Task: inverse folding
């Protein structure tokens, strides 16, 4: 028997047209809802919902109203080919935290209080009901992490072991009398896609890694484009604005970063040449204790950092430190004004990484160029250090530093 196949065209399914969301989309933490339409009159209450509404589209704007009293508490990773701009409603600041408030009861054993959290890790706790003064500016104090005796932290310390947090405040008071922000998520906002993420007007705080982040190790080459404008990042473990990947591009304009445990702005790329440009930015008061390698801006591996104007001051180590085969160019002759690095090495030329750095430092095989008005002032260690020939380094005005400059001849 011969079987002859025949083909019959089936009924075609009707095309389903995607209903485009409004552009711009609106997020509001006060009056928005999870079921909102994303319009001004019917906003959603989450950046995640807003991004899902416009995912895969071309250029979209998300406008956010999230006052300090009602911050967003989430981590958003944009991984797409779209061009996305997230900005404040009417250019007002909007707040996003990568932390959780430690509410509820605490167990007590002498002056040490404990609470079961069952987090995977915990490396930052900020007491936002208290203030401290650093170089005449007020901040919320951080508890120092005790890894040697985590269950019996000293004054002003915390430990974390077996999913339990141990806290001892500076005056031995109960933490239930205060507000504690525990860093819970790696970032507030980050991008790893082939598109570009522009962030404006944000106040981002309390991240385990970087408050605002571009890229990731092992990502495809050419991904990661992050542009940040008129924003503030504070209280993170690794960085306020950081980048890591292959040939990622990060450009910040009028961005201020304060009280980071490591570097205010940091740039990494294990392969390729990551690029970061800082225009009239401020990276200040990095580091929590003597001996830390904590800078206003820092580049690593074979990355390229460019400073155009701005201030990088008050850090435990340098205002700028370039290491390994990275390159840092400093320009004090652009529309963004002079570059100032003042009062760095603020806890002294202590043993450890700090003693090999300076207020402004090119270490290892790092290279760079200096032009225009650049000042390194009143540091408590070496003013300017360059272990290789840096074009224009002698233009830097190094004044009032505790130790003389060390510049390769």
Result:
């Amino acid at each position: 028997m011969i079987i002859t196949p025949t083909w019959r065209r089936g009924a075609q399914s009707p095309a389903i047209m995607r209903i485009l969301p409004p552009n711009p989309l609106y997020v509001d933490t006060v009056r928005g809802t999870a079921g909102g339409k994303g319009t001004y009159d019917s906003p959603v209450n989450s950046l995640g919902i807003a991004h899902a509404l416009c995912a895969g589209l071309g250029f979209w704007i998300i406008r956010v109203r999230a006052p300090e009293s009602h911050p967003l508490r989430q981590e958003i990773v944009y991984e797409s080919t779209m061009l996305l701009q997230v900005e404040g409603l009417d250019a007002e600041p909007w707040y996003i935290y990568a932390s959780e408030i430690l509410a509820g009861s605490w167990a007590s054993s002498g002056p040490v209080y404990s609470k079961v959290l069952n987090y995977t890790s915990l490396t930052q706790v900020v007491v936002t009901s208290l203030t401290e003064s650093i170089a005449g500016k007020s901040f919320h104090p951080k508890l120092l992490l005790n890894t040697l005796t985590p269950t019996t932290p000293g004054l002003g310390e915390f430990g974390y072991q077996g999913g339990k947090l141990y806290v001892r405040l500076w005056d031995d008071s109960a933490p239930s009398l205060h507000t504690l922000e525990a860093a819970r998520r790696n970032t507030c906002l980050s991008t790893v896609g082939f598109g570009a993420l522009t962030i404006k007007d944000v106040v981002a705080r309390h991240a385990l890694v970087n408050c605002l982040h571009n890229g990731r190790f092992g990502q495809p080459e050419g991904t990661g484009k992050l542009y940040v404008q008129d924003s503030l990042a504070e209280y993170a473990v690794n960085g306020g604005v950081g980048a890591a990947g292959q040939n990622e591009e990060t450009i910040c304009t009028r961005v201020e970063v304060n009280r980071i445990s490591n570097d205010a702005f940091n740039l990494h790329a294990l392969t390729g040449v990551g690029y970061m440009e800082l225009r009239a930015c401020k990276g200040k008061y990095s580091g929590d204790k003597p001996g830390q390698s904590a800078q206003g801006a820092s580049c690593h591996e074979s990355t390229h950092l460019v400073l155009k104007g701005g201030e990088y001051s008050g850090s435990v180590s340098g205002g700028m430190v370039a290491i390994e085969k990275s390159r840092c160019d400093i320009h004090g002759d652009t529309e963004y004004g002079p570059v100032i690095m003042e009062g760095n090495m603020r806890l002294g030329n202590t043993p450890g990484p700090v003693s090999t750095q300076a207020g402004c430092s090119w270490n290892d095989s790092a290279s760079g160029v200096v032009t225009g008005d650049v000042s390194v002032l009143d540091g408590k260690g070496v003013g300017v250090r360059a272990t290789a020939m840096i074009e224009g380094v002698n233009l830097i005005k190094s004044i009032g530093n505790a130790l003389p400059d060390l510049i390769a001849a």
Summary: The first helix runs from residue 47 to 54. Residues 99-181 form one domain.
